[in-house]
Structure formats: C-alpha cells, structure tokens
Amino acid sequence: MDFISYRHLFQQILNDPNPPSPYDDPHYLNYTKLNWARQERWLKTGILNDELVTIIESIKDEQLWTIITEPWCGDAAHTLPFMHRLSDLNSLIKVDYQLRDEEPFLINQYLTNGSKSIPKLIITETGNNDVKVWGPRPAGCQQLYNQLLKDNVDMEEKKIALQQWYNADKGVSLQKELITLLSDKGKIF
How many CB atoms neighbour CB 141 within 10 A? Predict the structure, then answer.
C-alpha cells in the first residue's frame, strides 16, 4: 500500500467503534491514537537534513522502499514521517508499506536478533541484488531500549523513556543513519 492507504487504514482503526484485534484492547487503541498525533506532528514539523535531501534528490536509478510497520508501533510514529517526506523528494523512489502482522509476513525475512521488531526500511535498487536495511530504531534509541530491558523497567516507563528520546532527537539520528545507508552499500540493523 502507499502512504495515503496506510494513513487511511490508520484512520479506519481509530474511527471503528469495534476495532479489530489488537486494537480492541483499550491500551493498544489509546497508544495508536498517540501514534497518530506523533506522526502528524513530525509530518508538519520535522526538519529534513540538508545533506540527506541532496543525497535523495541525486538518486538516478529507481529504488523500491519497502516499509514494514503497524499503526500500533511507537517507533514507526517517529520515523515513518521522515521516510515519507524524504521519498517524496524523488519520483524514482517508490514506496510500499507492508503490515508486519499480515501476509506475506515479510518481516520474517528481516528479523532483528530473532524478533519481529519494526519499523523496517528495505531499499532495493532495480536490477541490483543489493538490499539495504534499516530498523527498527536509531542506534541511540536502541541502546536506551536495551538498557531499559536489562534494568527490567516496566512497559509504561519504557514507552515514556523512548518517547522522550525521540522528542529530544527530533529525527536527527534517523537521518544521519539514512545518510550512511544511502551513501554506502552496507546494511544497518
């Protein structure tokens, strides 16, 4: 699906008086509402990195950006808006949003330490077997997350800490990692 379809799905979930699982759980639904607001905020206020904009605009061959996500994903709410805005800068970039929890279960090919962590950005260049992968979160945020797990911090505290990290970072770390990803032939996990 494209970004418009993804946003439409997001809105259907939020407006459904009897949303499907897992959104029928009030905690999931509330978190999804927060994610919508976060996504909207970054779409409007996120500042794009000039160096990254230049790299994106200079892409000369078609690329397919597959983004594996779900509306309930807090990390996606903070990163997808930047990916969307960047992909809009070059018509050679085609984007396909795939849901983690629906067929074809593409996430199974892009596990993070054995887990189905999202979001994932997979970049495929036409006619080239090279695949570039980013996700599920910027390295600094991942370090924080790992420490929170190690310290056995409860889920609500984790959510708050990660939210604070993203708010302070303002998309800077994601974009620096995308500069590295798009400048090299390597993978970032």
Answer: 20
